[in-house]
Amino acid sequence: MNTRTKTIWLPALASFALASLFLLGLTRTGFEQPNLVRLARLAPWFYGMWLASQIFSGALGAGLSRRAGGTLTARIVAAIFPAIVLFGLWAVVIPMSAFAQHNQFVLRHPLSYALGIFVWVVLPAIALLLGAAPFLRNGEHLTQS
Asked: Please, how many CA atoms are within 13 Å of residue 107, restricted to the half-sphere of its CB?
């Protein structure tokens, strides 16, 4: 296995899988109740729980990358990979979908689109970096015993 796979791709995919599983778990528990008023009140709580879970996802990605001997850049990329994927969704998939389906919402509401990028990309990236922070230092002091 090459270095890039060990230090970036596998830790990044583990981080993305954990973030996705947390989101799946929260949506499964929250959307089993069909009462829309109740769901609207709980939506900020579900989002907050998912955002808090991103700390663990970032820690997993950076920790695995560090364990495999990844550089600082590799650890950061592995940690924030879920946010990178979400950025790709917001930057490419949503505009293409809007144009293909002739949906003018994105064009008519650019502030809402920008707010979506902030909520689904920037805030999770910050949470992912918070989780990765302990693993971003070089571990030389750990090996000097």
From this structure: 9
Tell me, yes or no, whether 104 lies in a domain: yes
Q: Find out whether 64 and 10 touch, Cβ atoms under 8 Å.
A: yes
The answer to whether residue 60 sits within a structural domain is: yes
Domain range for 79 is 3-137
pLDDT over 80 at 21, yes or no: yes
For residue 116, pLDDT over 80 is answered with yes
Contact 62, 131 (CB under 8 A): yes
Helix residue spans in the chain (DSSP H): 3-4, 10-30, 36-67, 72-88, 94-100, 105-108, 110-117, 123-132, 140-143
The answer to whether residue 144 sits within a structural domain is: no
Domain assignment of residue 133, yes or no = yes
pLDDT of residue 25: 87
**Among 22, 128, 116, which residue's Cα sits nearest to residue 30?**
22
- Contact call for residues 33 and 39 (beta carbons, < 8 A): yes
How many domains does the chain contain in total?
1
Measure the CA–CA gap between 8 and 29, rounded to whole angstroms.
32
Q: Which residue has the tokens 């990028």?
A: 117
Q: Would you state the pLDDT for residue 145?
A: 38
